[in-house]
TrEMBL record:
Gene3D superfamilies: Rhodopsin 7-helix transmembrane proteins. It is found in: Cell membrane. It comes from Collichthys lucidus. This is Thyrotropin-releasing hormone receptor. GO terms for molecular function: thyrotropin-releasing hormone receptor activity. It is a multi-pass membrane protein. The chain crosses the membrane at residues 26-51, 63-83, 145-163, 192-215, 264-280, 300-323. Belongs to the G-protein coupled receptor 1 family. Residues 42-320 form the G-protein coupled receptors family 1 profile domain. InterPro entries: GPCR_Rhodpsn, GPCR_Rhodpsn_7TM, TRH_rcpt_1.
């Protein structure tokens, strides 16, 4: 991440150049290589899971794919060049490499911020405005929003082709170092940075804090109704057994939807919190250096800031695996660790969700089919539990999954 450091002004003395210590080179290159390798594998798996698994192609997961692509861009355009910088201490990719790598660095950073903002707004609409979510939170609309995000950030970052250039820094001990830096003086770059800081960091975090507060109020203070007694009163007494089965299915669906909503929201909230936490050291450093005559450029602290940034791009697949049962099962399938029949739960999940929506059409909004289908998972354990719990009247009565 060459451009994340502040280079000395060319009209000032540079002093004597000293190479990185062997200890720094070994530790920095090893950590950066490990984080980048894990991040590349994890984000590629996220993309493959969503693209190759039909029931995973949902609006929320589309935004996660966009975030994974942006993280891959950060890891390849910023993480890998940082390894060569740690080893050689000089820029080795030439003039055009400086322009392109700088462009893709900022493109990945800005696109990841916009993707996080997009899925936060999508979750807010889906949970707090379920009626509007039926036509706003759709797969086709999500694809259009993602296309707009990448088109906007791609055009916005074009300026870095004109702001970046390589520099030959001649030190007092007659050593020349090639660096990828900024073509314009530092005072002209600061307004651009503060605009980026406000639009792609502060604003998304403030918006996320407000929206997740509203989402939490709905999910944890006003849970979805799950009491089937009111539904029994509305129905007649002629079909008592059928009403019991319907009420039990409605209750089970409502409880599962509420639980899955909380799980997905918690997972996305963790992604946002980590984004804010891991980017904070670098953002704070640049803000502080902007007001200092001699910027603070300790190599170990810069390494810490870089590691936090790359860790943010690499840790999201770990969060999905730890907090999402569907992603965990899909990852196992990709890794050939699951059973060959692992697709069956997804089939039952679709049928159960659609059947429950039909049965509860007079009680709950049908937005669950369009916005919550990705969140309700029927695993092998749940199916096996249903087969064994014969005393349960909801399971003992025959449930026809083929209604869908």
């Amino acid at each position: 991440m060459e451009n994340f450091t502040t280079l000395p002004e060319l009209n000032n003395t540079l002093g004597n150049w000293t190479d990185y210590s062997i200890q720094y080179k070994v530790i920095s290159s090893s950590l950066l290589l490990l984080i980048c390798a894990l991040g590349l594998v994890g984000n590629v798996m996220v993309i493959l899971v969503v693209l190759t698994t039909k029931h995973m192609r949902t609006p929320t997961n589309c935004y996660l794919v966009s975030l994974a692509v942006a993280d891959l861009m950060v890891l390849t355009a910023a993480g890998l060049p940082s390894i060569t910088d740690s080893i050689f201490g000089s820029w080795v990719f030439g003039h055009y490499g400086c322009l392109c790598i700088t462009y893709f660095q900022y493109l990945g950073i800005n696109a990841s911020s916009c993707s996080i903002t997009a899925f936060t707004i999508e979750r807010y609409i889906a949970i707090c405005h379920p009626i509007k979510a039926q036509f706003l939170c759709t797969l086709s609309r999500a694809k259009k929003i993602i296309l707009f995000v990448w088109a906007f950030t791609s055009l916005y970052c074009v300026m870095w082709f004109y702001l970046s250039d390589i520099q030959e820094l001649v030190y007092d001990n007659d050593i020349t170092i090639i660096s990828c830096g900024y073509r314009v003086p530092r005072k002209f770059y600061l307004p651009i940075y503060f605009f980026d800081f406000g639009v792609f960091f502060v604003l998304p975090l403030l918006l996320s804090a407000v929206l997740y507060g509203l989402i939490g109020r709905i999910l944890f203070l006003n849970p979805l109704p799950s009491d089937p007694k009111d539904k029994k009163r509305k129905n007649g007494q002629n079909n008592h057994n059928a009403n019991d089965r319907t009420s039990c299915k409605n209750s089970r669906h409502s409880s599962s939807t509420a639980t899955s909503r909380r799980q997905v929201t918690k997972m996305l909230a963790v992604v946002v919190i980590l984004f804010a936490t891991l980017w904070m050291p670098y953002r704070t450093l640049v803000v502080v250096n902007s007001f200092l005559d001699q910027p603070y450029l300790d190599s170990w602290f810069l390494l810490f800031c870089r590691i936090c940034i790359y860790l943010n791009s690499a840790i999201n697949p770990v969060i999905y695996n730890a907090m999402s049962q569907k992603f965990r099962a899909a990852f196992r399938k990709i890794c050939r660790c699951g059973r060959k029949s692992s697709d069956k739960p997804a089939t039952y999940s679709v049928a159960l969700t659609y059947s429950a929506v039909k049965d509860t059409s007079m009680v709950e909004s049908t937005d669950h089919f369009t916005t919550e289908l990705e969140e309700l998972t029927v695993t092998d354990e749940l199916l096996s539990d249903q087969k064994m719990m014969f005393p349960d009247p909801c399971v003992y009565g025959k449930v026809n999954f083929s209604d869908a």
